[in-house]
Design brief:
about 700 residues; alpha+beta; 6-stranded mixed sheet; 5-stranded mixed sheet; 25 helices; elongated; disordered N terminus
């Protein structure tokens, strides 16, 4: 059977201090008697699910409970005679799982499927029976949970196991919600298992199920699972943390007094708010102790402020920062920029006159519900726009997670070449604790992990076409592909027109997303010759030098003087120019705004008047900034030749982060053709800027 059966009293970790305050806990023996002996008349609910109905109605006052009654009767009849290892009727397990979900606010369809989640696997009930009595939606969820339950996690949680689990649950997040509640109840009642089996189940929970709970935003389940895993895998640290919390319980707690002060401040400001003190769970206390060392009384909990509207959150923040001393480094705005798991709140910390620092969380009541229950609080995330329209259970469902990370997991797992790669990349993906949203140039958005680069954005937007990406503009400015992105950036990706273009091996050093890393690695493996060429050592600058001229069209008002155009600014007609006498009696000509003009005057160089001849030809040096690609130098030279311009000299510097700098000294037949020449050079694919030297 899928549920691990134990006696809760036999497990020392299943103690009250691990329970969230206010969470209902089941008396399994009483529940077992009610399951067997409770009334089952048509006009009332069986006593065994009375508490489930009560919790459900607290969130959904108008819910139809008749379907829950029918689901319970089918589940109880099907499981009758089956017992858990603790000696309780097996029906107590689906009841406990359903109660957990009801407390989180799950909608009726999810609760119905939860009551039936083990029937198809462990009893004679078939999916066709479930569909006939409860409809396609419940059948779809039960089928998904059954596929997950049939997965053999194995001794070390093999990679292929979780690939199957993702595929089984990817089309409906409610499947994973039931699985998480199922695992929480099993972890609560794990005591009669052998220690090695407890450790195996706890490691699977830690490695994948807890990160998935975080991704789905179900904090109420995630925090309790963390504490239960902590107790099993780190018993010594758990005991020391428990002793630390117990010692604090005997001391004066400053947080209630700080909460009273916050209430008074908000009351005087006319802001209707509920202020609570939220104790930290065990793992949170352990982390804080490792970070801060010795803990003070205010470190064992946080203050939660609940208000009605988003605007009230910022009003509360203003009052707190006005009436207390804010700790600026602790401020985070997850309302304007929600976390990837739907979480929204304002986080801050304030110092009191007594020297305590209290962390404060400000959110609306709706935000609080989502923060605790995550996707469970969404109700039915796949409901059709028209209530009467039935959803097709076979069609692909939209991803309700923000910003679609579950769909991304399903996409890249298909491209993972082998189970080991999938496993390592999955764990890295789930370890990401923050996501950013960047805007595309076409107005769309991309969800990326924090620290993602332009390379990740390219593969997220263009897939394999990103192999030809040659650069990007971030917030309107040119940026290398390795540039990291920040939340709210606007990124425009530049693709090469050459279909043979491919990624460089160093892209892997800057790729953070699984999709990008897998795509780059696959391309490099299939093009070993190109992979070697992209990683070759930097070469010395390539120079092409022709005959050098002198002063061009510049004439100095100094008889027999040699005139030279300065290489630092390469003036051309009709630039305003200045001339200076240098060693050897030569006159150098600079543009009037060249930085060298001020230096010449500062050192006392003799100024010489210069002017341009009537002839139109001129010499100029242009700098071309481009992204590296094959045949770029040939294409630029061809563009220059088409304009009838002679190349006097050309220098190509070694590539830096895929960017190449070209310097051309050119002889133009007519100075008026310079703007057209610069436009022609900018039009060459890969060239993003051309400027005068």
């Amino acid at each position: 059977m899928s549920a691990e059966a134990t006696n809760p009293e036999a497990h020392p970790e299943a103690r009250p201090e691990l329970r969230r305050r206010g969470r209902t806990r089941l008396d399994l023996r009483r529940l077992g008697r009610a399951a067997l002996l409770g009334p089952t008349s048509r006009d009332r609910l069986p006593d065994a699910i009375g508490h489930v109905a009560e919790a459900h109605r607290a969130h959904h006052p108008d819910a139809d409970l008749s379907i829950l009654r029918r689901a319970y009767l089918l589940a109880e009849t099907s499981h009758r005679g089956q017992m858990r290892k603790s000696g309780e009727p097996y029906i107590t397990h689906p009841l406990a799982v359903t109660l957990i979900l009801a407390e989180l606010g799950a909608e009726t369809t999810t609760l119905t499927a939860s009551l039936l989640h083990d029937t198809v696997e462990d009893t004679e009930v078939t999916l066709d029976q479930v569909r006939a009595e409860f409809g396609d939606e419940v059948c779809f969820i039960v089928d998904g949970v059954t596929k997950v339950e049939k997965i053999d996690y194995g001794a070390a949680a093999e990679p292929e196991t979780f690939r199957k689990m993702l595929v089984a649950t990817g089309n409906d997040v409610r499947v994973m919600s039931i699985k998480l509640a199922d695992r929480l109840h099993n972890m609560r009642t794990l005591g009669v298992m052998r220690p090695e089996k407890q450790a195996r189940i706890a490691k699977v929970t830690r490695d994948v199920l807890i990160p998935l709970a975080e991704r789905l935003g179900v904090q109420a389940l995630k925090t309790e699972l963390e504490d239960l895993v902590f107790a099993i895998l780190h018993p010594e640290e758990y005991e020391s943390t428990r002793a630390l919390i117990a010692a604090h319980a005997g001391e004066r707690d400053p947080l209630p007094g700080i909460a009273d002060s916050v209430r008074a401040v908000l009351r005087d400001a006319g802001i209707a708010a509920e202020v609570q003190v939220r104790p930290r769970h065990f793992v949170s206390v352990h982390r804080i102790a490792r970070t801060r060392g010795e803990l003070r009384g205010s470190d064992f909990g946080r203050i939660l402020v609940l208000v009605g509207e988003n605007a009230d959150c910022y009003a509360v923040l203003g009052e707190l920062h006005t009436c207390f001393t804010p700790v600026v480094s602790e401020f985070k705005d997850f309302i304007a920029t929600p976390k990837f798991n739907l979480y929204q709140s304002l986080h801050t910390a304030v110092a009191t006159p007594e020297g305590y620092v209290a962390e404060v969380i400000v959110r609306t009541r709706q935000m609080h519900r989502v923060a605790e229950a995550g996707v469970v609080a969404l109700g039915n995330p796949y409901a059709t726009a028209t209530p009467d329209a039935a959803a097709d259970p076979d069609e692909e469902r939209a991803d309700p997670t923000r910003p679609g990370w579950l769909s991304r997991l399903l996409d890249w797992q298909q491209s993972a070449p082998d189970p080991d790669t999938f496993w390592s990349v999955l764990r890295a993906e789930l370890a990401q604790d923050r996501e950013i949203t960047v805007f595309r140039a076409d107005g769309g958005t991309l969800g990326l992990p924090a620290g993602a680069s332009c390379i990740d954005a390219a593969y997220a937007q263009h897939g394999e076409a990103a192999h030809g990406c040659i650069g990007a503009r971030v917030n309107g400015r040119l940026a290398s592909l390795s540039s990291p992105l920040s939340d709210g950036d606007t990124v425009q990706l530049l693709l090469a027109q050459d279909a043979s273009s491919g990624p460089a091996a160093e892209w892997l050093d800057h790729a953070r997303t699984p999709a990008a890393r897998i795509a780059i690695s696959s391309w490099l493996e299939s093009h070993p010759d190109r992979a070697m060429s992209t990683t070759s050592a930097a070469r010395a600058p390539l120079s092409v030098v022709g005959a050098r001229g002198g002063g061009g069209n510049a004439v100095a008002d100094l008889p027999d003087a040699t005139v030279r155009l300065a290489g630092c600014c390469t003036p051309v007609p009709p630039d305003a120019v200045a001339g200076f006498l240098v060693r050897g009696g030569a006159v150098t000509v600079h543009r009037i705004h060249c930085a060298a003009v001020a230096q010449m005057r500062a050192v006392g160089r003799t100024s010489v008047a210069v002017h341009w001849r009537a002839t139109a030809d001129c010499r100029v040096t242009l700098l071309a900034e481009s992204f590296g690609r094959p045949h770029l130098l040939a294409d630029l030279t061809e563009a220059i030749a088409r304009e009838g311009v002679e190349v006097v000299s050309a220098t190509v510097e070694p590539p830096v982060e895929q960017r190449v700098r070209h310097s051309y000294t050119l002889q133009l037949p007519d100075a008026t053709g310079l703007p057209a020449l610069m436009r022609a050079m900018r039009d060459v694919p890969g060239v993003y800027d051309v400027s005068r030297a």
